Amino acid sequence: MKRFSVVWAVMCWLFYPVVLLGGEGGKEPLHHIADVSKATNFFTRWLAQTYNEQRLIHSIAGIAFMTVMGVLLAYLTEWLMGLLGYKAERMEHKE
Amino acid sequence: MDFFHIYLPIAGMEFNILILLAIGFCLGVMGGFFGMGGGWIVTPALNIFGFNMALAIGTDLLHIYGKSIVAVKKHAKLGNVDVALGLLVSLGMMVGVELGARIVMFLSAKGLAGPIIRYIYMGLLCFLGLYILYDYFSATKKREAVKVETKTTKAGLAAKIQHINIPPMIYLKASDVKVSFWVLAIIGVLIGIMAGFMGVGGGFALVPAFIYVVGVPTAVAVGSSLLCCIISGAYGGFSYSMKGRVEVVAAMILLLGACIGAQIGASAIKYVRGYGIRLLYGIMLLLAAFSVFLRQMEMAKIAGIVVLGAALAISGIITLFLIKGLITERA
Fold first, then answer.
1. Nearest CA in chain A to B63
2. What residues of chain A lie within 8 A of the CB of B280, using their CB?
């Protein structure tokens, strides 16, 4: 543990010069506008539009999409692995 | 190959779906196999392939949210989730994630987010890679001795922490531990800052903190840390999205790849014996650090080849072990 405390201490001190080493990168605009015209399908166009005009709706929709996708994939992968005869909860780590 | 290119409206760029799927897949295989989320690979990888740093972090956090839902479902079934512990630590984590996100946005406005976070990632990946290599090369006997020694020290630490009597005291039923709310809040804030600043789930810090600082059993620590990742990932994704730094389409594709990979990684555990695969993982992390360095030196193409090549190589080896094991088992 003592050795790792030393490693961490050295790393913390390294991060100071890192800030100086980093220098000025390309500054980016904080308020970015999505280019709706380049969107190739309804979904990306809708995302770009809500991003530009209704950020709150865009953010809630993003979380909602991931929730639905996460839940669906959780059931789907479990079902598929069950078909193949795999139950993760029955597996043992052999290392 | 235009067929595989998709326009990402928030990133404002054309992106190859196969690259996103490959990043997600490798992440899933490694996560499923080694039991680590691997969020520390996604942010630098997305940055190497052209996302600006804040966008890479926001997208990573949203994808971590989706991935944690899939993982927590399995752990909940096994009774490994201490809901009270997860919810209380998440309160602190949300504060931390917001702080981390604000630091990133501040640095972004100054044009410093990319280089600073890249250097920090280089340090973190090198540290993790070297630690794994050190662990691999240490003699088994010595390792066991160290384990016993640290176990005693850390159990003592958890006992001391549980004696801190600052109200409100919380009884965690699933873990059978009584601890001050403030201990959980501080753990949450500190790990949350790291999660929000670097775009990681924080599982690799939460699990040891739960075990050694709070005194939670290992299985419950893993399940509860995933619950924290769901809440902090959702909050981080939402917060970065409100700041305009989340590419939802990319997060969805990453999640798809990760779910496929995670099943392969988790199944391969059954067939891969020995400690050797950890050596490859350590080398992979060092290569990832090197690729971040190359990106910092404006050699993005070579950096992309190095990071994706290394991740695909180790995921490929694990997949091959699985296929070989399946063939042997069915023969």
1. A66
2. none
Question: Is the predicted pLDDT of residue A5 greater than 60, yes or no?
Answer: no
Closest-CA residue of chain B to A91: B270
Provide the 10 A C-beta neighbour count for residue B38: 28
Task: Dihedral sign for Cα B311, B317, B323, B326, please.
Answer: negative
pLDDT for residue A7: 53
Residue B35 has which token pair? 């039991």
Q: How far apart are CA B60 and CA A31, in angstroms?
A: 20
Determine the Cα–Cα distance for residues B11 and B177; give it in Å rounded to an integer. 45
- Residue A34 pLDDT > 90: no
Would you call A66 and B275 a contact, using CB atoms and an 8 Å cutoff?
no
Total length of chain B: 331
Q: Is B79 an 8 Å CB contact of chain A?
A: no
- The reply to whether omega before B217 is within 30° of 0 (cis) is no
In a 10 Å sphere around its CB, with 0-12 CB exposed, 13-18 middle and 19+ buried, how is residue B132 labelled?
Answer: buried
Contact predicate B28/B266, CB 8 Å: no
Which residues in A lie closer than 8 A to residue B129 (C-beta atoms)?
A: none
> What ipTM is given for this predicted complex?
0.79
**Nearest partner of B200 among B240, B229, B231, B235, judged by Cα:** B229
pLDDT for position B152: 46
Under 8 Å CB pairs connecting chains A and B tally to 175
Average pLDDT over residues A7-13: 52
Report domain extents, chain A: 31-87
Quick check: B162 contacting A, CB < 8 Å?
no
Residues of chain B with pLDDT under 50: 149-154
* H or E element, residue A49: helix A42-53
- In chain B, which residues have their Cβ closer than 8 Å to the Cβ of A24? 110-112
Burial of B87 (0-12, 13-18, 19+ CB in 10 A): middle
pLDDT tens-digit series, residues A65-94: 999 998 898 888 878 877 776 665 555 444
Q: DSSP of B213-243, one letter per residue?
A: II---HHHHHHHHHHHHHHHHHHHHHHHHHT
